[in-house]
Amino acid sequence: MNKVLIMGRLTRDPDLKPIGQTQLCTFGLAVTTKFSAEKGETCFVDCKAWSKRGEAINQYFNKGSQILIEGRLCLERWEDQNGNKRSKHTINVDNFHFTESKANSNQNEPDKPNSKQNGMNDDEIPF
Questions:
Q1: Which end of the chain has less neighbouring CB within 10 Å, N or C?
Q2: What does the pLDDT average to over 72-96?
């Protein structure tokens, strides 16, 4: 069984691109695990959402938004410019859930806002 359930904040605005007859939305997710007295650690994961799911994520989420992802872990392999074999794990999104209310996520307008519209600089967001 390959099932991932993960909640975190987007590290960048979603990127929606056409791939053939469908859309692919890619975004990064920062997931922080906090331990009792320790600072905790953050894991960064790349995610991919296809078609309507990808379009919805692109429309309703932006850098800093919190999201709950259900998906599958995938291993991507490629060869870099120097001929070295590279790999990384990504999550293919099967479903997602909103975890913040519109007011809590700084979304004041019906279209996809960004943090600059709300008086924040992207450099002020710590992820």
A1: N
A2: 95
Q: Rounded to whole angstroms, how far apart are CA atoms 77 and 82?
A: 15
Number of residues that this document lists for the chain: 127
CA torsion, ordered 38, 39, 40, 42, to nearest 10 deg: -170
Range of the domain at 11: 4-124
pTM exceeds 0.85, yes or no: no
Of the chain, the end-to-end C-alpha distance in Å amounts to 31
Check whether 125 has a pLDDT greater than 60. Answer: no
Question: Is the four-CA dihedral 90, 96, 102, 108 of positive or negative sign?
Answer: positive
List, in order, residues 6 or more apart from 117 with CB less than 8 Å away: 108, 109
Longest dimension (CA), the chain: 50
Q: What is the mean pLDDT of residues 47-68?
A: 96
For 37, 82, 88, 113, the CA distances from 48, given in Å and listed in that order, are 34, 26, 13, 21
CA atoms within 13 A on the CB side of 115: 16
Tell me the CATH number at 75.
Answer: 2.40.50.140
Structural domains in the chain (count): 1
